[in-house]
Specification:
It is a single chain. The chain is an alpha+beta fold and 189 residues long. It folds into two domains: 7-80 and 164-188, no CATH class; 84-161, no CATH class. 48% of the residues lie in helices and 19% in strands. It is built from six helices and five strands, in the order H-H-E-H-E-E-H-H-E-E-H. Helix 4 runs antiparallel to helix 5 (121-149). The chain is elongated and about 70 Å long.
């Protein structure tokens, strides 16, 4: 019987006894190895925490400018979240206009690439103009059909971005003192 709730399907063990369970710490060790650390004590440690990526980047750049081996550093984003900022209402007309503009750009650039084979200058201009117009027409129609097919579930435009609560500049333990000294000098400057 292939029914999921049948007694025969419930008698199947959920784990395979021939597969070994992961060793405690194996996941952490694999992550450290991927980061270039061979032992947990080699794992990068916190040098400074910054409120913005720009500040963390500036700190690593400062270390680089002072000939610190920046390949021994990392910038880690903490508490990532996705923020979608709504920038306006989307109507059928706006959707069609944006599609038309995208289609016109596509038609224009495609005609420029294919137009190199046209010898007659007047024929070339006609080809580019008609390709741009057709691209605009089809782009506008496709965008309008797509908008109408959504059934009004997304009548707005937005811009999305990943943000983090803070950014940690991490450094290999063997280089911590030198990095600390340089970053302290950056703060004083």
């Amino acid at each position: 019987n292939s029914d999921f709730n049948s007694p025969s399907s419930l008698d199947v063990p959920l784990t395979d006894p021939t597969v070994e369970a992961p060793v405690p710490g194996a996941i952490e060790s694999a992550a450290l190895a991927q980061a270039g650390a061979s032992h947990p004590s080699d794992a990068p440690i916190l040098l400074r925490r910054y409120d913005s990526y720009r500040d963390a980047q500036r700190a690593v750049d400062y270390l680089s400018d002072h000939e610190f081996p920046v390949e021994r550093t990392a910038i880690a984003a903490r508490n990532l979240s996705f923020v979608e900022r709504v920038i306006g209402r989307l109507t059928a007309g706006k959707a069609a206009m944006q599609g038309a503009l995208g289609g016109a750009a596509f038609g224009f650039f495609l005609s420029l690439m294919l137009g190199i084979f046209i010898v007659n200058p007047q024929g070339w201009v006609t080809f580019v103009a008609s390709s741009t117009a057709l691209g605009s027409l089809f782009g506008g129609l496709l965008a309008l059909v797509g908008f109408l097919a959504s059934g009004g579930e997304r009548d707005f435009q937005s811009v999305g971005a990943m943000t983090a609560e803070s950014y940690d500049v991490m450094v290999d333990p063997a280089y911590r003192e030198k990095a600390e000294m340089l970053v302290n000098g950056m703060s004083a400057a």
